[in-house]
Structure formats: structure tokens, C-alpha cells
Amino acid sequence: MRGRKIKKFMKINKVSALSLKDDTFLYAISVFAERALSFFIIPLLTKTLSQELYAVWTQIIITSGLLVPVVLVGFSNATVRFLAGESDRTKISRIFHGMCAIIFSVLVFIGIYAFLFPFQLSALMFGTGSYFRLVYLFGFFLATEAFFELFIAFLRAQKEIRVISLYYFSKSLFRIVLLSLGIIFLRIDFIYIFFAIFIVQALMVVYIYLRHIFSEYGLFLGSMGIEWKNIIVFSLPLIPYGFLIWANNFIDRYFILHMLDIKQVSIYAVTYSLAGIIGVFYSILGFTIYPHIARAWNKGDKEKVKHTMHSAFKYYVFSIVPLIAVFTILHVPIIKMISTASYVSHWLVIFFLTLGIGVFGVYQLNIYLLLLKDKTMLNLFITMVAVAANVLLNLIMIPAFGIIGASVATLFSNSILAAWTTIEARKDIFYPFPWEHFQRIIFSAAVMSVFLIIIRDYVSLWNVATLLIVLSGAVVIYGIGDFIQKDSLLLGLRSAQ
Predict the structure, then answer these.
(1) Cβ-based neighbours of 305, under 8 Å, separated by 6 or more
(2) In 3-state terms, what secondary structure has residue 224?
């Protein structure tokens, strides 16, 4: 009976056809290119800067990740939720510019606080007050990051995925160019490089606004015909939620900083950067499917939502399982290649982090279903429980096991998020989990892992060419494992319409 239901389910409308497939493909190319550029920043910084200064850079990015969701007041998700499918341009402009005004007010408050307490904030972010000048500049950098994400959310609601892809890539390209020029060629102080990055991002934000928002929708203000109450009720729980999600993912850096030292932060940061490649896949899928399922949900088409979620999980699991194996087995040569031997950590750190980030992706995809049902308060409560568990485990595990303990805490808290959210999401929108493919994926990944272990033990992997050849062989083995199956996911992707 269950089998017939699943077969019936699989026949239901093949995902709004080429739109979702093309959006995902284009955004995937952009994200992989953008992450490749970001990845090049690691050897650039680790091989030219001290471990302390590299840790300062990572703390800037991490702290920005903490504050951007707070500054946005939950409006990045609200923009997609309430503007996707809206046809009244005046209404769109009023809602969006109202959001901008609120965000600007928040930024002014943060800027005043940073101006009054630079030494204290420097000690909190970097473990010392000597970087107080970076705190002043960080406030302006934060403003460009926040408005960039808001404008991207606006374009996302309008399904401008190609344009978004270009801007994300350009942002990373400018960063690596400026870092390279400043560190390698000009050899100037890091604060001036950081200032240049801020200027370029500010110009990009202004261009996006003038080109895609002001020119298309104008500047309209006022609350006439705008259901601000619904928007605020939806958005407000996302403020502490954004903070909590950041805390769940990155608060361990601060525990490591203050319980161990800043060099351990740099080691953990490099390992996390490698493990974070797993996050590319749920970022791509989540970014592209949310506008589609939001439109389908607003039209009352639950079956399309179910089908889209089923397909997303199928390809998500297919993508991340082999990566977990590859990074765990080959983390030493990869880290030595992108940095130095001083950044290599225990294999358990990369294993727990990749598995934890993979599990977080299960949560991240299911959270969109809770957002569609406006269950932001439930989402907030689930996150609070997970973060509490994360903090408690970090306090216990880091003193006893160092950064291995931090990675265990990440896996445990992400498991709470994933399990609880999946149960709640599927209560009203039940989509079948692709168990039939999961067993085949595990088998193919196991065969590939045996190959990698043998190669690692008998072949020197200390140059890029050899490592790339081995990785290519692993991809071929994993791909063959899929092709020989009756329902090949790769062939299914090619024939999807």
C-alpha cells in the first residue's frame, strides 16, 4: 500500500519543470565558483599571515555572520515569504523600503555602541583590545554585508537567480583580488586591506539597489495597504533565531578562544572551512527551492511542495555522503596543501564536523516547511534547546578534549535540530524520505572509501596533481556505483524536465 502511494506521489507534476532545475544549476555553478575563490583565500592568508592575524580575519567573518541576521530583523526570509508572487509594484516598494528604514535604525544603534566601547568589543572578538581600530571599521563593513543580503533576498523573491549568482561570485572575486594585492604585492597593513574590501562592497550594494530595485520599483514609503502586523509577527522570532543559529554553528570559536588560545581557533577554523564545503549543497538547494515552494504554497499546491522536497533530499544525500568520506580520509594532505602542517587537526575533528554540517543541512531544508506554515515560534524554541545543548557540551568537552570536543558538540546539537524539525515539518506536509536510494549511496561511498584508504596508505599525496587524480578516481568509482543502479540519480538528473 505504501509503495503504491509513493509511486503515485512520484508521478505528480515534475517540479515546475525547467525553472527550478535551471535555477538550481545556475546557482550551483555560481556557488561552486564562489566557494572555490573563498577556498583560495585560505592558503593566501595562512601562508602569508601569522596564525593570530588569520584568526582575526576568521573572527571578523564569524562575528559578521552573528550580527547580520540581527541587523536584518528577520526581513531576509520575510522578503521571500511575502514578496514572492506579489504583482503590485508600489506595494512591493513600500514593504521593502520600510524594511530598509528599520534595518538602518538598527545599524545606527550598533555603530554608536561600537564607537563607545571599541576596546571591550575588540577583546570580545579577538581576545585582545589591541585591534580596536578594526572595530570601528567593522561597523561599516557590517552595514554593507547586511544590505547586500537584504538586496539578494529581494532578487531571490523575484527569482532572479542568474543575477544573484553573478553578484555572489563578484563579491568573492573582489575579496580575493584585494587580499592578494594588499598582502602579496603591496604588503600593506591589514586594516587598509579591510577598508578597501568595505569600499568595494559598498559600491556593489549601491549598484544593486539602483540597478534592480530603485529603477524597477521606485521609492515609495508608507503603510497604506501593508499588513505590517503579519510581517512583524513572522519576522520578530527570526531575530533571536538568527542569533541562535549563529551561536549553534560558531559559538565554539569563542569557547576555544577563551578556554584554549587563538592559535587553536585558527586550526579549528581551517578544518571547519574544509568541512564547510558540505554546506554548499544545502545552501544551493535551499536557496533555489524556497522561492518555488513559497509560490506553490501561496497557491495552495501542497503536492508540488512535497515533490520538490523529496527530490531535494534525494540529491542532497547523494552529494554529501561521499564528501564526508573523502574529507575524513584525506584531510591531512588537503589541509597541508591549502595551508601548512601547523593547521592539521585530529581526524575525528573533520569527521564530526563534516557529519554535523551534513546533518545541519537536513534541518536547513526542513526549516522552510515550518516557515511556510508560519511556525517561527516553534522554530525558535527548537533552536533554543539545541543551542543550550551545544553550550553545555562545549563547556564540558573543550576543557577535556580540546577542539575534538567542540566538533562533538556541533554534531550533537545539529542532530537535535534536524530530528525535531523533520518530525514537525512532516506532520502537515508529509514527503517520503528517499530511503530506497540511501542504502545504495552508502554502498557506493563504502567502495570508494576502501579505494581512498588503500591509495592514502601506499601513494604520496603531497602534490596537487596526484591528489586531483586520486579524487577524480574516487568520483568515477562513486559515479559507477550510481550508474549500475536501476534508478540512477545521475541519469535521472540528466533526463529531468
Answers:
(1) 293, 296, 297, 369, 372, 429, 431
(2) coil
| Cα–Cα nearest to 167, from 154, 150, 152 | 152
Task: Judge contact between 398 and 259, C-beta under 8 A.
Answer: yes
Q: How many CB atoms neighbour CB 341 within 10 A?
A: 8
**406 versus 234: which is more confidently predicted?**
406
DSSP string over 141-209 = HHHHHHHHHHHHHHHHHTT-HHHHHHHHHHHHHHHHHHHHIIIIII---HHHHHHHHHHHHHHHHHHHI
Of 314, 362, 320, 321, give the one whose Cα is nearest residue 490: 314
Q: Which residues contact 336 (CB under 8 A, 6 or more apart)?
A: 344, 462
Q: Are 274 and 350 in contact (CB under 8 A)?
A: yes
Size of the chain, expressed as the number of residues it contains: 497
How distant, in Å, are the alpha carbons of 100, 210, 211, 259 from that of 146? 10, 17, 18, 31
pLDDT at 14: 44
Label residue 471 by pLDDT band (50, 70, 90): very high
Amino acid identity of 240? P
Q: Is the pLDDT of residue 115 over 60?
A: yes
Q: What gap in Å lies between CA 64 and CA 67, rounded to an integer?
A: 5
**CA separation for the pair 346, 208 (Å, rounded):** 43
* Residue corresponding to grid cell 521606485: 218
| 3-class secondary-structure state, position 311 | helix
63's grid cell: 562575528
Average pLDDT over residues 147-168: 87
Cβ contacts of 425 within 8 Å, gap of 6 or more:
366, 367, 369, 370
Q: Where is mean pLDDT largest: 79-88, 190-199, 224-233?
A: 190-199
Q: Between vectors from CA 81 to CA 425 and to CA 65, what angle results, nearest 5°? A: 85
The least confident of 244-248, 321-325, 333-337, 491-495 is 491-495
Report the distance separating Cα 119 and Cα 130, nearest Å: 7
Residue 5: CB partners within 8 Å, gap ≥ 6?
A: none
CA distance 161 to 163: 5
Helix ranges (H only) for 47-116 are: 51-71, 75-83, 89-116
